[in-house]
Design a protein that fits this description.
The protein is α/β, with parallel strands linked by helices and 657 residues long. It has four domains: 339 residues, no CATH class; 74 residues, no CATH class; 92 residues, no CATH class; 126 residues, no CATH class. The chain is built from 28 helices and ten strands. The chain has a six-stranded parallel β-sheet with strand order 4-5-6-3-10-7, sandwiched between helices. Strands 1-2 form a two-stranded antiparallel ribbon. Helix 12 packs parallel to helix 14 and helix 21 packs antiparallel against helix 22. The protein is elongated, with a radius of gyration of 31 Å.
């Protein structure tokens, strides 16, 4: 299996969770569906969300009715179109399920497309009745599903408007499927029109009046009120059909699993509307004390924003304590929740190590390679897989250099694309050149507040503050932190360092602005961090030496760590890390007695750089020595915090070349 194996163990766990949500229970001598919240599988780009849906499709194929749609590809579709596409897929023939029919839903879709005389209500009612009498055959039902799904049935296809007709090829497939498998069966649509009068809610409306109203709303679907009414009514009809179909036929007692809708990229406006309407329909039914849950399990993937506006009381979370390989413990709170969140975890260092071992490389040290790869990708699944694939094709090296890995071309990609290019493509997908430029600028900020302040300085961003709030902020500072997000920030900062001369703002411009923001906020460590990033090792050393006599050792140690942790580097010499430290310390222009501080600062910055190569043994030994030397400069003599740090780096040195 390929390196990383698409997080196969994590996928097995969530597949078990989906199966648990699909499973029906026996009550009163028959199988009944249980309340099942919408399962929202969250993860950054490249964490395996789409791989999960593909694995589920493979398991469900030829066994359980299911439909899969990408709501980002079809972001311009309507809720009725998506429902038609799902109904089309669910109506294929499966063992034990036969072919599920959607007559109530079809009545609504058919009536919406009629040209009624809405100036004469009585005439319009007669037109509806006549239309339902004419459209009796199952082949006509299938045709309506194909036509009303529009381009969504291509899954495929891009912006589908409300009235788009499908390709002739699809119509042909629809007719062939129906006439070849259901010959002789007829379904009288008129028998299902009455549902629109009561809607399983005990209502006493005239069904034809409701259908005429539905047609009237459809004449202006862009009106928000009309759209809400249509979506709610068709969702209710769709679910009523499913409940009826699962209880129909001699094999009803064999349908032990719900049918399934798999919705990829549900963070779009369409995804939110579609799923919110589903939950609203379920809530209304529950409010009427009706306990016949619909037999539909919905799995939606999200990058983390889908549930942002959902009250916490309506959500539950499936964590590691409830989802283990081969076993799922259904929690009581799931039965009270309308949404169930499952976060796809990133790879652990041990799992990266397992993937490295699986490569069976004839060269190098597996433990060292694991630490380099995990330090670079932080366990982001798709990035880890790509990096290890590149490593597997590399010739033996005396040491492992992330810079060399990132510079390697990736076969099968666009011309001259490097591993680094491919990683950015994976993490960002399609963004404009202007957006990418602004992302590089804002990624240099240490937190969201700093980035927002940068955006407020109108001369820095091409897109301005509004572009930051609408586009950049959701990309750079989503609610959920992840390995993919950490890697994205690192790669964007590297791109900023390589920004061409003459293109503003430059690396120094950005860090100077950030330094000033930190100074205004009283963030001493932040000021040092950005000065160090801009190569000001001498001034940083002088400031730290001064503070060594002003604050206690523990506070000074914290200041040093905060200033150096994650401090990016604009230039890398290609020398061995220890040689680079000595060069930088020699250029710092400080007194000889301050060289241990300058060397320590430079070494900590390089040691914390995930792009530093594996020749780190001497680097960590030097850090250990310098901590000991700096400890002796402390008022009152050596301090325990420095001695412990020294021991830590001596142990760390054992891992490296």
């Amino acid at each position: 299996m390929a390196a990383g194996s698409d997080r196969v163990y994590g996928l097995k766990r969530v597949i078990e969770l989906v199966r648990e949500l699909m499973t029906r229970e026996e009550r009163g001598g028959s199988l009944r569906s249980r309340h099942a919240p919408v399962l929202v599988v969250e993860g950054f780009r490249g964490t395996g969300k789409t791989a999960l849906l593909s694995a589920l499709v493979d398991l469900l194929d030829q066994r359980v009715p299911h439909a899969r749609l990408d709501l980002e590809t079809n972001r311009h579709a309507s809720v009725p179109q998506v429902l038609s596409a799902i109904a089309f897929d669910l109506s294929r023939r499966y063992p034990r399920y036969n072919a599920l029919h959607f007559p109530r839903f079809i009545v609504g879709q058919l009536v919406m497309r009629l040209e009624l005389d809405l100036t004469d209500h009585s005439h319009a009612c007669r037109q509806v009745v006549d239309a339902l009498k004419r459209h009796r055959g199952l082949d006509i039902i299938r045709e309506v599903l194909v036509e009303t799904a529009g381009n969504v049935l291509l899954d495929v296809g891009g912006g589908a408007g409300v009235t788009i007709n499908p390709p002739t090829r699809l119509l042909g497939l629809g007719f062939e499927w129906v006439t070849g498998r259901t010959r002789g069966r007829r379904l009288v649509l008129g028998a299902f029109q009455n549902w629109y009068g009561h809607r399983d809610l005990g209502l006493r409306n005239d069904p034809i009046d409701v259908l005429v109203d539905l047609n009237r709303w459809a004449t202006d679907y862009q009106d928000e009120d009309n759209r809400q009414r249509i979506d709610a009514l068709l969702w209710a009809a769709f679910l009523a059909d499913l409940r009826a179909e699962f209880g129909r036929g001699r094999r009803a007692d064999e349908r032990s699993l719900n049918c399934v809708a798999l919705l990829d990229n549900a963070d779009t406006e369409l995804g939110r509307r579609f799923l919110n309407q589903l939950v609203r329909a379920r809530r209304q039914r529950a409010a009427g004390d009706q306990d016949d849950a619909d037999p539909l399990t919905v799995v939606a993937t999200s990058r983390g924003a889908l549930l942002d506006d959902i009250p916490a009381a309506e959500q539950a979370e499936a964590g590691a304590d409830s989802v283990r390989a081969g076993q799922v413990t259904r929690r009581p709170e799931w039965s009270r929740a309308w949404w169930l969140r499952y976060r796809l975890p990133d790879l652990t260092e041990d799992e990266v190590g397992r993937a490295v071992t699986d490569l069976a490389l004839p060269w190098g040290d597996n433990q060292r390679l694991t630490r380099i790869v995990y330090g670079l990708t932080v366990g982001h699944p798709a990035s880890t897989r790509l990096v290890l694939d590149v490593v597997a094709r590399s010739s033996p090296k005396r040491w492992i250099a992330p810079e060399a890995i990132l510079a390697q071309p990736v076969p099968g990609t666009r011309s001259q694309a490097t591993t680094e290019d491919q990683l950015l493509d994976c993490l960002l997908a399609d963004v404009s050149g202007a957006t990418l430029r602004d992302l590089m600028t804002c990624a240099a900020a240490r937190d969201r507040g700093q980035a927002l302040s940068l955006a407020g300085q109108g001369d820095l961003l091409v897109s301005g503050q509004s572009g930051y709030e609408q586009i950049l902020d959701p990309i750079l500072w989503p609610v959920q932190r992840s390995a993919g997000l950490t890697l994205l920030h690192r790669l964007l900062v590297r791109s900023l360092a390589r920004r061409e001369p003459g293109v503003t703002p430059t690396w120094s411009d950005v860090h100077a602005r950030l330094r000033d923001l930190c100074h205004a906020a009283g963030d001493e460590a932040g000021v040092l961090h950005h000065r160090l990033a801009d190569g000001e090792l001498g001034p940083v050393t002088l400031h730290l030496h001064q503070r060594l006599g002003e604050i206690d050792s523990t506070a000074w140690f914290g200041l040093l760590e905060s200033a150096t942790t994650g401090a990016p580097r604009r230039h890398r010499s290609g020398e061995a890390p220890i040689d680079e430290v000595r060069i930088l310390a020699g250029l710092a222009e400080v007194d000889q007695q301050l060289i241990p501080i300058a060397r320590l600062v430079a070494a900590l910055q390089i040691a914390g750089d995930p792009f530093t190569d594996s020749r780190r043994r001497d680097l960590h030994l030097q850090i250990a020595d310098d901590y000991s030397d700096v400890s002796r400069l402390c008022p009152g003599g050596p301090h325990a915090v420095f001695l412990e740090a020294s021991r830590k780096h001596r142990r760390e040195a054992e891992w490296w070349d």
